[in-house]
Amino acid sequence: QSALAQPPSASGSPGQSVAISCTGTSSDVGVYNYVSWYQQHPGKAPKLMIYEVTKRPSGVPDRFSGSKSGNTASLTVSGLQAEDEADYYCSSYAGGNNPNWVFGGGTKLTVL
Amino acid sequence: EVQLLESGGGLVQPGGSLRLSCAASGFTFSRYAMSWVRQAPGKGLEWVSGISGSGGNTFYADSVKGRFTVSRDNSKNTLYLQVNSLRVEDTAIYYCAKDITAGSQLATQVDHWGPGTLVTVSP
To answer: What pLDDT, in 10s, does the model give residues B40-59?
Structure first.
């Protein structure tokens, strides 16, 4: 049950785009399309932003998009806004003999 | 409106036990798998345990296997996590979360979270 790899930090100016990567293995991200992304502001519970790699729940702005290539998933935030400054966590279903759910270590997104 | 509310956290000594609860409302509870996720102070998210909608399938992270037990009472719309043999490193906010899709066995894409309950393990 190894964690997914995310960069600890990312940043961009208002209006710019930023991409956050999430690298897993052929046991999780690489083989399942159950990759999701969560936004967490300080002191708050996480919020689902992307699920099944590319889908957005209702209410999430279309500035947020997801993708996957091989063992690496990505979250792209376009048209950065001040309120996007938060921690972002990727996660993936990991199957096999012991199904489980693995998270990335989190990326602190700073809007400059 | 979907609502999840955890309770049962507190301060406990190493080796102690607690029973965490998560009261659910606003959806057909028995149709959805649920998970517990924890977050140590200043750290990232860590999945702890999950349970299918019927309660027939349970799943655990290696770090808690044998010490924690997940269960649910669908007649009371309540999820539980019995935490035993607590260690200092179990100190965290414990969140319950609901899967986005009805019928899944393990909730790994969750669209609603509770506010969390804090468990502090300290001598």
So the answer is: 999 999 999 999 999 999 99
* Residue among B91, B27, B33, B17 at smallest CA distance from A101: B33
Query: A64 — contact with chain B (CB < 8 Å)?
Result: no
Q: CA B96 to CA B94: how far, in whole Å?
A: 7
Question: How far is residue A5 from each of residues A71, A98, B116, measured CA to CA in Å?
Answer: 11, 21, 25
Q: Is A16 in contact with A81 (CB distance < 8 Å)?
A: no
Mean pLDDT of chain B: 97
Residues of B in contact with A102 (CB under 8 A): 47
Distances (CA, A) of A36 to A25, A39, B70: 15, 10, 23
Mean pLDDT, residues A32-61: 97
Is A57 in the B-facing interface, judged by CB distances under 8 Å? yes
